[in-house]
Amino acid sequence: MYKDLSAKNNCIICGKHCENGIIIKGKVICSSCEEKLVSCEIGTDFYEYYKDCIKKHLVPSILRDNVEMNEYLR
């Protein structure tokens, strides 16, 4: 029933606790994963893995926010 508040600071890619990095829609990507993501080549297995992690964790909240905004505007 209660969410684990410590999980809020876990990287959505590697799952490790992080103190710094980027925050997108309340989700954290640690600076180490951010650096790897920026430097990897498109089409590699690493790139696909990072892309899938981002889709899994960010797309649902973006879609939910869009639905809520559309309902608000009606």
TrEMBL record:
Name the record gives this protein: Protein CsfB
A Pfam family assignment: Gin
InterPro entries, sorted: Sigma-G_inhibitor_Gin
